[in-house]
TrEMBL record:
Species classification: Eukaryota, Metazoa, Spiralia, Lophotrochozoa, Mollusca
Alphabetical list of Pfam families matching this protein: CUB
InterPro entries per the UniProt record, alphabetical: CUB_dom (IPR000859), Sperma_CUB_dom_sf (IPR035914)
Record keywords: Disulfide bond, Repeat
Name under which the protein is recorded: CUB domain-containing protein
SMART domains: CUB
PROSITE patterns hit by this protein: CUB
Gene designation per UniProt: 106051635
CUB domain: residues covered: 1-101
Amino acid sequence: MGNISSPNYPGNYDNNLVVTWLIVTGPGTKIELTFQDVSTECGYDNVQIMDGPSSSDPVIGTLCTLPGVNSLTSTSNALFINFTSDSSVSGRGFILTYMEIAA
């Protein structure tokens, strides 16, 4: 189990960011993400979650605010997370927890 947050969280993140994370768990497991808080400039800044180890894997979530359903589960033992911001207006960003679960 672990946490990932945008730079400076809970303070505002910087403009012009591209930040990536790769989560890999044990063979034969999945990953469950739970978003605790998401507050970005919708349409311009977002958190994108790919179902696999790279940015070319299928997107299973793109968030700019806390969704009604605040958790996502991978289909394998890897998730790639990409956070981007544009050149103006920033927000608090996000914080999430992740944990390994049985496949």
